[in-house]
């Protein structure tokens, strides 16, 4: 028997209800809705500080800025990384100067280009500005992270003073064991240490001197000289700073033949140019620097090229011939072109540009870790503390961040030849207590060109050992003194004998 059910009293109204309800559902709003619906995100505002006004860092500063733009672009393009957050950046010129840097920091903190305050400071070209930023951004002040791509002051490793600071560059002191290994390789057991008379440089140089003189594997006698640099009179040969440096170099060259220069690129160039004028590029001297490669050097300046010829410069290891780095360099150059920034004229991006890119990513990684562990990204001290033990291979090579917010990394030894920096060796850094046991590879040992192009490496005591007393020299002097004493005594005895005979 066929049964028919009674229709529901709502049946006639059902189509109308569906027409009202279905279009209101987000997944049923058709192509127009899916194209316009976006998930709400929170902005993360970073302030990038670079030096785009000083003479030696002008074009590289813009290249570093381009690398920061590229890093932010890549972070936002990765929809699986912090999908609920969007990175935005403003930039300011720190001028590698304390006063200019203070204005840049204050201006960035108020963040006139965004609706909210900045969450982090990335970059900063020089340590005088980094130390200032470290104080202002500390936990009891602004409490925001500072991640530098360039600052090298050893003072910045003091977590109790700078709890919100981290960096992708190496501190100057991190180079000391590599310097010891270089000295050991060439049997340099006495060196001069020329340091800019800025407080943190002097403290770091004093620590380096102590380590070099007490190292259990290879002791080096260090003669420390503090020099002054005056930007306003750097080319004035009648200035007091120039006259004083000439006196210091004249004094130190009477003691050593190997000179380590601790300072920024302007300091290094000031010393090298003055040494060249004093005739110290004559094949008898060697000079060691750190990260001088960052400077924007004019290779058409013959005096400059002659002054820096043969220098050994130590910097973080980076294979610039790697295809990945070449691709990175091309992308950086594309940003420079797009934004019409001044160009460096080099085929590959500078090391510090790669460190800038990685500095942005170090902060972003720490933000991700903070969110996973339940910390607020507005707690700068906590975000920086979570950077400890992070490790990855970035654009600037192998990266390891220690508990002090410092980078540990391998070091390449560069030799300046006709204004170009050529890699001649590699020192492998270690977290062990005795890194000197690790190998130093000299991949182009025979191609090193020393100042003055001598046939062999400079000798710590001079090629005639005129600055040192060898064992044979000491024996000869003692023997001579003994003979003189014997002759004197013999003369006295003879005279006494003759006197006694005469008076009998």
Quick overview:
This protein has 504 residues and is of the alpha/beta class. The protein has 14 helices and 16 strands.
What do these coordinates show?
The protein has about 500 residues and is an alpha/beta fold. About 40% of the residues lie in helices and about 15% in strands. The protein is built from 14 helices and 16 strands. The chain has helices spanning about 15-20, 30-35, 60-75, 100-110, 125-135, 175-185, 200-215, 240-250, 265-275, 300-310, 325-340, 350-370, 380-385, 470-500; strands at about 40-50, 85-95, 120-125, 145-150, 165, 190-195, 220-225, 260, 285-290, 310-315, 390-395, 395-400, 405-410, 410-415, 420-425, 440. The protein has an eight-stranded mixed sheet with strand order 7-6-8-9-10-14-15-16, with helices on both faces. Helix 7 links the parallel strand 6 and strand 7. It starts with 13 loop residues before the first helix and ends with a helix.
């Amino acid at each position: 028997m066929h049964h028919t059910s009674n229709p529901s009293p709502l049946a006639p109204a059902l189509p109308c209800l569906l027409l009202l309800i279905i279009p209101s559902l987000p997944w049923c709003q058709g192509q127009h809705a899916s194209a316009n619906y976006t998930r709400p995100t929170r902005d993360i505002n970073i302030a990038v500080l670079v030096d785009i006004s000083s003479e030696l860092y002008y074009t590289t500063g813009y290249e570093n800025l381009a690398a920061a733009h590229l890093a932010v672009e890549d972070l936002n393009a990765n929809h699986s990384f912090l999908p609920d957050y969007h990175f935005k950046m403003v930039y300011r010129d720190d001028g590698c100067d304390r006063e200019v840097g203070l204005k840049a920091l204050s201006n960035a903190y108020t963040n006139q280009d965004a609706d909210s305050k900045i969450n982090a400071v990335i970059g900063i070209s020089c340590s005088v500005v980094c130390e200032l930023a470290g104080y202002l951004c500390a936990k009891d002040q602004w409490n925001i992270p500072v991640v530098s791509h360039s600052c090298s002051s050893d003072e910045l490793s003091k977590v109790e003073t700078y709890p919100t600071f981290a960096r992708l560059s190496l501190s100057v002191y991190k180079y000391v064991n590599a310097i010891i290994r270089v000295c050991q390789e060439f049997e340099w057991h006495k060196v001069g240490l020329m340091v800019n008379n800025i407080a943190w440089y002097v403290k770091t140089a004093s620590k380096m001197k102590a380590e070099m003189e007490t190292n259990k594997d290879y002791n080096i006698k260090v003669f420390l000289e503090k020099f002054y640099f005056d930007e306003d009179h750097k080319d004035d040969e009648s200035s007091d700073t120039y006259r004083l440096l000439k006196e210091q170099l004249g004094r130190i060259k009477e003691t050593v033949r190997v000179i380590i220069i601790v300072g920024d690129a302007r300091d290094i160039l000031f010393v090298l140019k003055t040494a060249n004028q004093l005739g110290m590029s004559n094949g008898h001297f060697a000079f060691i620097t750190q990260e001088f490669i960052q400077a924007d050097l004019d290779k058409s300046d013959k005096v400059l090229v002659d002054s820096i010829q043969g220098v050994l410069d130590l910097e973080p290891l980076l294979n610039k011939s790697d295809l990945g780095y070449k691709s990175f360099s091309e992308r950086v150059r594309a940003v420079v072109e797009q934004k019409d920034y001044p160009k460096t004229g080099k085929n590959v991006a500078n090391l510090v540009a790669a460190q800038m890119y990685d500095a942005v990513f170090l902060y972003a990684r720490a933000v991700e870790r903070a969110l996973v562990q339940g910390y607020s990204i507005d707690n700068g001290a906590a975000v920086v503390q979570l950077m400890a033990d992070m490790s990855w291979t970035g654009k600037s090579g192998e990266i390891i961040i220690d508990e002090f917010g410092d980078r540990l990394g391998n070091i390449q030894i560069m030799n300046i030849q006709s204004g170009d920096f050529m890699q001649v060796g590699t020192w492998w850094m270690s977290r062990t207590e005795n890194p000197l046991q690790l190998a130093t590879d000299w991949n182009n040992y025979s191609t090193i060109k020393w100042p003055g192009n001598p046939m062999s490496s400079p000798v710590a005591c001079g090629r005639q050992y005129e600055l040192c007393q060898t064992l044979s020299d000491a024996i000869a002097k003692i023997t001579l003194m003994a003979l003189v004493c014997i002759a004197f005594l013999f003369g006295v005895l003879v005279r006494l004998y003759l006197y006694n005979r005469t008076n009998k």
